[in-house]
Structures are given as structure tokens and as C-alpha cells.
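README, section 4: Worked example with a bound small molecule

Sections 1 through 3 covered apo chains. Here we extend the same pipeline to holo records, where the ligand is supplied as SMILES alongside the sequence. The molecule in this example is nicotinamide-adenine-dinucleotide. Nothing else about the input changes; the structure line simply encodes the ligand pose together with the chain.
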Amino acid sequence: MTTTDSPLHGARVLVTGGAGFIGTAVRDALRRAGARPVLLDNLSAYEPATVALLGTGRHDPDLVFGDASDNDLVRHLVHDADFVVHAAAHSTVQGCLADPDTAFRSNLAATDTLVRAVADSPSIRRLILLSTAQVYGHGDPDTDTTRPRLFTETQPYQPLNPYASAKLWAELHTRQLLTAAGRDFTLLRPFSVYGPGQVPKPGAASWVVAQFTMYAALGQELLLNGGGRQVRDFVFRDDAADAIVRALTAPGAAGRTLNLGTGVQTSVSEVAEHVLAHFPGTTVRTAPPAAGDPLGGRADTALMHRVLDWAPAVTVTEGIARYVDWVRSTPAAIPPWMRAETSDGRLAAWTAPGPAVTRPPYLDQPASSCNGAS
Ligand SMILES: NC(=O)c1ccc[n+]([C@@H]2O[C@H](COP(=O)([O-])OP(=O)(O)OC[C@H]3O[C@@H](n4cnc5c(N)ncnc54)[C@H](O)[C@@H]3O)[C@@H](O)[C@H]2O)c1
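The generated complex, written as C-alpha cells:
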């Protein structure tokens, strides 16, 4: 399809959180589709050097520097848009626990501000909300919690932390207000998005591909929390952006809640093995489990494949290789706080007295029981 044939050709698309890791990939995909992205971002997530690596910043003519909870600003931007992608969030569990005020403003107040503006704007053709697969938590409590599982859109929610709870609220609020207003929307639940451009945030336990690669590049040990038996469904950044852009115009996505995953599960210890293949000599140490860290699983992708006519293009092996290449060619991406750390210091911080660590149930099972199908 040429750009002019694209259903998004010439469309104005407001991307909140547009200067972030996924937002900038969505921007690039929108440009390829001939759309005109406008990024709204308060640049709160990263150092300016990281924002520059993502190809934006205060100088960017496509970026509006501001807060997604600013009612007047959001209404002005929504009024001028045809579509909205809501990616702005205080987007780590640890960040939400450490700074609940910011989490409330960015994850709850901003969503309310944006959704009410969209409800009042007949020009908006669809809003995409980026929720999270974390709304599933450990998964259905009535099934075996010691094995990785398949997460299906219709199964019960079980958010385990304030970040996941806020996202679940955002889903329900969006559905209720926009249904009442007669506006179109799609709720997407991304699994673990990774790829070039991803820079870990201090204190956050997520983004294991980025963390392991950068620690290996620094010659530090890789710490496998709970032995690395947790599994995740890793989605390459460009594949995720492609799915998000398809969701803007796919007729079958109207009013839907859709997973955004690959259907393939990879354990954290397998991620370490992939990284070690690029950095032989790196050592790996088992560390205590993280409190409330779910065993995880993979997305049921049947609905999203059908509705979005989408399939991932990049395997985990290829995606990690591309990420390693990016870090090697962009060493400045490794943030100063990571360079200042040591393996022993990280382990000591991890094991220091803090909130009680709940032993995840899967740790009491033999390792082989975590490797089968869910
Ligand atoms: N990366 C993943 O694996 C993943 C998985 C599931 C869901 N998500 C969701 O996808 C979205 C994008 O994630 P990401 O990985 O790009 O995160 P990110 O932190 O890189 O991007 C979020 C952006 O939102 C901006 N922001 C935060 N609060 C804001 C506010 N009040 N006003 C304006 N801008 C604000 C930040 O500055 C940042 O640029 C988030 O909603 C996140 O919760 C991400």
C-alpha cells in the first residue's frame, strides 16, 4: 500500500506520552502511513539525553510540551485531532509506589481529562488506550498458579499493584464514558515491549532485555530474581507500533479490548542466555524473588490477529540481537545511574530490609513444571 492509499493519510493523530519509548515508535509508524502525529508529553520519564535518542525534545516542532491532565491544553489538542493514542503514563510499578501523587495525576487524572475531552469531540474517529497485560496479574485465581498461562481478554482481572489497578480503571472509565458519548475506542493490553530505544528507569524491575544487555555491556553480573523462571511475552517495539497504528482504523477493533502480544513465552533465564550469547564471559547469579512478581505467561493472540490482521515480524532471538547492536553502537544510551552501580551493590539493595517479599507460588514447584505449555 502506498502512503496515499493509507486510511491514515493526512490524518491528525494526537499521541499522549508521544516522547516515550512506545510513543516515538508510534510516531514513526504514523509518519510512514502518511499521518500527521502531534506528540503531547511532559518529558517526565527520561533524562534529556534519552529523549534526544528517541528523536524528540523541547525543540521538536511536532511535540507539545505539557501535561496530559491539563484540561484546557488537552481540549485544544483533541479539538484539532482526528484520532488519539493515549500512551502517557507513569509507567512503572515501582514509580507508582514511590510517587503516588504523580501516578494519580498521570494515570488517573490525565486519562479522565483526555477521555472527557474525546467524549465532547465529534471529530475524533477513534481513541486507542494503551492499558497493560498487568491487569491479568497472576491470572485466574481458580486455576493452577504454579504454571505459566495463556491470558485471554475475557478472563478475570487480578491487578497486583497500583499501576495495574489504575490501568484497569482507565479501561473501564474509557469504555463507560465513550460508549455513553457514542465515540469509538479500542483498549489495548501490551505485554512486554522491548527493542532499540529502550532505556531502563532507575528502581524499576521491568524491561529485562534492556537491563541484562546494558549490565552485560558494562561487564556486570546478571541477577536472576527467583531463578529467572518467570515468563513474559516479548513484543518488538516496531511490531507493537504497527499493531497500535492498525488498531486506529481496523473496523473490527471498534469497542474491543485486545491483547498486544506475540503468543510466545520466553523465560527470564532464556533472555539471559540470549544476552550471554552476545557477551560470553558474563556471569549470572540467582537473586531473591521480587515481591508480587507474577509468574506471567503469554497472550492469547487469536482475537488481535483476526481483528488487526497483524502478526509479529521479529522473533525474540532477532529482537535481542538488534537491541544488543543498538547498545553497542549507542553506548551513550546506558544511563549514568547504571554505570555507577556494581553487581554486589545491586544484590545488597535487592536483599535490604524493605516491604515483605511474598514468595510467588511457582517457586515451590520443580523447575520443569514451569516450562510446559500453560
Ligand atoms: N513498555 C512496555 O512494555 C509496556 C507494556 C504495557 C503497557 N505499556 C503502556 O504503554 C504506554 C507507553 O509506555 P512506554 O514504555 O512508552 O513508557 P514511557 O515511560 O517510555 O512513555 C510514557 C511517556 O509518557 C510521558 N508522560 C508521563 N506522564 C505524563 C503526563 N502526565 N503528561 C504528559 N506526558 C506524560 C512520559 O514523559 C513518557 O514520555 C504506557 O501507558 C505504558 O503504561 C507499556
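What to look for in the output: The radius of gyration is 20 Å. The chain has one domain: 3-370.

Section 5 describes how to batch many such records.
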